[in-house]
Amino acid sequence: MVIGSWWFLLVLGAAAGVRVVRGQGAPDSTGFISIDCGFPEKGSYVDGTTKLTYVSDDGFIDIGANHNISAEFINPGFTKRFLNVRSFPDAARSCYTLGSLAPGSKYLFRATFMYGNYDGLNSPPVFDLYLGVNFWQTMNLTGLGSVEVCLVNTGSGTPFVSGLELRPVKSTLYPQVNTTQGLVLHARRNFGPSEVAVIRYPDDPYDRVWLPWSDPAEWLEVSTAEVVNGVFGSNFEMPSVVMQTAVTARVSKSIEFSWDAEPSHVYPDPGYICMLHFAELQHLNSNASRQFSITINGHVWYSLYRPYSFTSDTVYSKLPQHGSTKYNISIKAAANSTLPPIINAGEVFSVISTANVRTDVQDVSAVMAIKAKYQVKKDWMGDPCVPKALAWNGLTCSYAISSPPRIEAIDVTGNQLSGSIPTGLLKRIQDGTLTLRYGDNPNLCSNDNSCQSIKKRNPMLVASIAVPLVAFVNRRFTYTELKVITNNFRRVLGKGGFGNVYAGLLEDGTHVAVKLLSESSNQGAEEFLTEADTLTNIHHKNIVSLFGYCKDRGCMALVYERMSEGSLEDKLRGKGAGSLTWIQRLRIALESAQGLEYLHTACSPPLVHRDVKAANILLSANLEAKIADFGLLKAFKRDGDTHVSTARLVGTRGYLSPEYVYTR
Ligand SMILES: *[C@@H]1O[C@H](CO)[C@@H](O)[C@H](O)[C@H]1NC(C)=O
Ligand SMILES: *[C@@H]1O[C@H](CO)[C@@H](O)[C@H](O)[C@H]1NC(C)=O
Ligand SMILES: *[C@@H]1O[C@H](CO)[C@@H](O)[C@H](O)[C@H]1NC(C)=O
Ligand SMILES: *[C@@H]1O[C@H](CO)[C@@H](O)[C@H](O)[C@H]1NC(C)=O
Ligand SMILES: *[C@@H]1O[C@H](CO)[C@@H](O)[C@H](O)[C@H]1NC(C)=O
Ligand SMILES: *[C@@H]1O[C@H](CO)[C@@H](O)[C@H](O)[C@H]1NC(C)=O
């Protein structure tokens, strides 16, 4: 049977600590996170021993498979957490994200592993456990933080986990823990209890787990019924029930114990910090004394120590011990001591650096937005750039010495992406600090550079070269600018219920169409802006692109790309009637349908054009069809339509789909 339990002590950031308020009865458990990994989805239960509520892990991770341990390993005394596991056979790194942690606070974090031959292989795996970017997570945040627990597949079996527990502790506890240094529990012992019982919450307000340790052949057990409080300002808040039992050496002997160093590939020579907790449990006569020295590996650590009467105190080192494969502690009576040495409890930790910093927070949120929005099919989990060896596939990260790693480029080629680019990202693409490679995503289009035509020209090139997406950014025009662009609104291209459409020319020579909301048409100003907002996020080769808008001194206008061949209606019935071949007509119908499909299925929320007709299908110089005027129907009266109200059926009679008419 293999049961492992790893405790981490970590501190987040440098701000104020968590206040732990004690009430009557059970200590305050606010902020405790207790997870039973592999427990059926959405399930929870109250733990029989601690009365803490454990929840299923489905809210903290979205990969992996649940397994029950093998029947022969089930022991009636087991905590429920041991009965099931979540395993991660497929990913190199699997991460749990525990949210809502207070920055600047210290936490105890425990991950529990009960193999129980859950996979039938009878071979417990070996894997790495990270807290975020280190073995732990260091965070320095201004808002709420989260801890990510990552299990890293090292090729020696499938990582799995049985339980995860997070407990906030007072900032004064375990003073060796700071933002750049954490402690990993090696052993935590309660000396001399008469019963083989584990002590944890609620006896220990921080849910530290104290395992019993006694050796009757070597030691005498002593205990008291009197409460043992900590010395004033104790950094360890020892539970009385732990301190009420102890062992003393038999006459003229010392108390000896040792531990072996456990090197890892990250820490070949781990440093150890030891905390020994003492309290005198006997009322001593004036002629009696208990004094002793403490040595580590033969070196004096504390030359003369006398425990406080019924009061717990801790001997601990600030700096770790290094350079040995085995460490022994010897507690030896002083020459004039009338009583043998005593020890009540002890903890040994190894020291771990938490100085690795996470990837720049804004970069992380940008790439997370991409991942969520496009449901990128890559195993993107944990920190994007750290540790370096586990940086996400498809990212180019830059590592500076004195600042957090940054994401320089994202490659999402060939991912079936569709839709638009998140605005936070656009800014960085625009100012040149981020490169986005998005080729081979036929439904993700930038302006009039239709993906299809780029692909046809040079598919290999697109797949590997960064394409600036500046065209996605909409510009805000002033009324004065519009006057310049349209040469004082000289040429009218068309008229609508909202006002006129004018021909315009941008500084770079681009032909545009400027739709100006007429002053008399006060109605729908709000809808006008709402729709402008919607259009900003729509990019498809068969939909007319919005270049910008104007909201200036009562002027409201939308600036579109201008379609040189006018509307399909003109081509069919107007000046150019009869000029289209059947093949051209078929293509226009197909392309219009593709634009509509994009509105209906790729946009979120889906959009309904509500006025698809030949007049609203515009043609580019090479007769490519683009849908225009969509959305505005909600707000504006159309030619030949008599009503404006949004509560009413809008659109042009004869062009409305029966489904829309019946279900509006
Ligand atoms: C584990 O056992 C429980 C109870 O026996 C059962 O409800 C559950 O479906 C099992 N889960 C798996 C993954 O086999
Ligand atoms: C935490 O962040 C602040 C501001 O970002 C910085 O000034 C401070 O040095 C950081 N503290 C640590 C311990 O990294
Ligand atoms: C954390 O503690 C270690 C050891 O005492 C020390 O070297 C380090 O500078 C401390 N870090 C901070 C941020 O105080
Ligand atoms: C200490 O003094 C008590 C009486 O107060 C006596 O009974 C005891 O034997 C003395 N012990 C030693 C070690 O001298
Ligand atoms: C403890 O360590 C020291 C130094 O390594 C060694 O000399 C001594 O024999 C050890 N004692 C025991 C009891 O292992
Ligand atoms: C025992 O001896 C030490 C010096 O080795 C001294 O400091 C201490 O006060 C003595 N204790 C008693 C109770 O005499």
Automatic annotation (TrEMBL):
Residues 1-23 form the signal peptide. ATP binds at residue 515. GO terms for molecular function: ATP binding; protein serine/threonine kinase activity. GO terms for cellular component: membrane. It holds the Pfam family PK_Tyr_Ser-Thr. It is a single-pass membrane protein. Residues 487-664 form the Protein kinase domain. InterPro entries: Kinase-like_dom_sf (IPR011009), Malectin-like_Carb-bd_dom (IPR024788), Prot_kinase_dom (IPR000719), Protein_kinase_ATP_BS (IPR017441), Ser-Thr/Tyr_kinase_cat_dom (IPR001245), Ser/Thr_kinase_AS (IPR008271). It is found in: Membrane. This is Protein kinase domain-containing protein. It comes from Eleusine coracana subsp. coracana. The gene is gb01889.
